Amino acid sequence: MKGLERWKGKVALVTGASSGMGKAIACDLADNGMKVVVTARRKERLDELIASLQSQGSTVMALAGDVGKEQDIQNIFSSIRREWGSVDVLVNNAGMGIMNSLENGSTEQWRQTLDVNVMGLSICMREALKDMEGKDDAQIINIGSFYAHLAQVPNFAYYQAAKMAVIGITNSQRAELKAKSSKVKLAMISPGMTATEFREQATGGKIPYEAYFKEFQPLMPEDISQAALYILSTPAHVQVHDILMTPQAMGL
């Protein structure tokens, strides 16, 4: 894709990269010559991913960690700074949600949802912005959700609330960057139904992955990755705010 050449050799951090959208984005960034740091909780999957990418000649680093824990995030950024200097691109992809009614909800699960989707994302942004200050070219991409733009999503109250918070945090931080004439760009991608493990995990495995996609073709992780590449390909004067994506068959 034209415009991506300038990122060759630059450092990208992708959270939640062990599967789905994060994995697809990490692979595409590596294919375009970036030095890619992948992080997630499942170390064995990260090891498989970097082995595959290294066999193709990519420069990658795997740092296992839980973005719901601040110390893990601090350790990740410390390792990157020690090995590769600083982060040029951050893709905040890690996220989780629990499908349940509010009256039957678990306080612990609500906190976990906010810790990963809101606090973890915010801490990653804060640390990345320290690295990006003064750079002529840097980009943060927060993965939101199309459902945060809908008024009603049953049984997903805290996930929807968390992704609504991501919209507010992203927009507010973009305004702060503009106020101080920073060249850091801040974008969101808000996908609808995507073929990942998310919904199976959200139901605790009660509804198998395939059951969601019998009636229509969902978005694929590669579709979201293409949106991320587009954002990175835009010239300095273009600020992408949010890309809303849904499967065509959803009819929304």
Low-confidence blocks of residues: none
Number of helices: 7
Helical residues, percent:
40-55%
Report on the biggest sheet. 7 strands, parallel
Principal-axes geometry comes out as globular
Number of strands: 7
Terminal CA distance: 29 Å
Give the SSE order as H and E letters: EHEHEHEHEHEHHE
Query: Within the largest sheet, what's the order of strands?
Result: 3-2-1-4-5-6-7
| Secondary-structure content class | alpha/beta
Beta content: 5-15%
Question: What labels would you give this structure?
Answer:
252 residues; alpha/beta
Characterize this entry briefly:
The protein has 252 residues and is an alpha/beta fold.
Describe the structure.
The protein has 252 residues and is an alpha/beta fold. It has helices spanning 20-31, 43-55, 70-84, 107-132, 157-179, 198-202, 221-233, and strands at residues 11-15, 35-39, 60-62, 89-92, 138-143, 184-191, 242-245. The chain has a seven-stranded parallel beta sheet, sandwiched between helices. Strand 5 (138-143), helix 5 (157-179) and strand 6 form a beta-alpha-beta unit. The longest helix has 26 residues, at 107-132. The radius of gyration is 17 Å and the shape is globular. The mean pLDDT is 91.
